[in-house]
Amino acid sequence: MKLTWKDGVTTVTMGLITAGYLAFLLGADLPVIDTVRGTTATVLILGMVGGCAFSGLDQSRKTGLDRFLIGLASVFGATALVAAIIAFVTASPAALAVLFGATAAVWLTATLRHALTGTGVQATLGPRTHEVIGPDDRAHRTGV
Q1: Residue 130: inside a domain, yes or no?
Q2: Number of domains present in the structure of the chain
Q3: Residues 59, 64, 65, 67: what is their CA dihedral angle, to the nearest 10 degrees?
Q4: 128 in a structural domain
Q5: Which residues of 12-45 are buried (b: 16+ CB within 10 A; e: fewer)?
Q6: Which end of the chain is more exposed for a tag (fewer CB within 10 A), N or C?
Q7: 15-72: per-residue pLDDT in tens?
Q8: Is the dihedral of CA 105, 115, 2, 129 positive or negative?
Q9: What residues make up the domain containing 49?
Q10: Any idea what DSSP says for residue 60?
Q11: Is residue 34 in some structural domain?
Q12: 61 CB contacts (<8 Å, ≥6 apart)?
């Protein structure tokens, strides 16, 4: 694959997550990110909206490297979710650090996968995949 605009959006999002986490570590007196729970919510929401919302499996056949990197990113994602739950419940800065590290690892793994792996062979969806239905055909099929 090649890097796309979605990779750019997720990179900007990861930059915002990093800036928020660093502001928390440096003790910045900013709304929301001045507590462990607030920073956890910020990292989790930005990670879900700016990362997960732009992800999706393509319909290409996967190579061994693809499968490995997808599995690795899944493990990091599960780790991030568990760390977020622990950080919310206990307000633990250590759990927040794990959340941040796992979120960064998901981003890095996905970006490396996009940059390093080939496009693969497109899956066959059938003979009529690219058929275009004209306005007359649509009216005929719906009885209009």
Answers
A1: no
A2: 1
A3: 50
A4: no
A5: ebbeebeebbebbeeeeeeeebeebebbbbbbbe
A6: C
A7: 999 999 999 999 888 888 889 999 999 999 999 887 776 666 665 656 788 788 888 9
A8: negative
A9: 5-119
A10: B
A11: yes
A12: 120, 121, 123
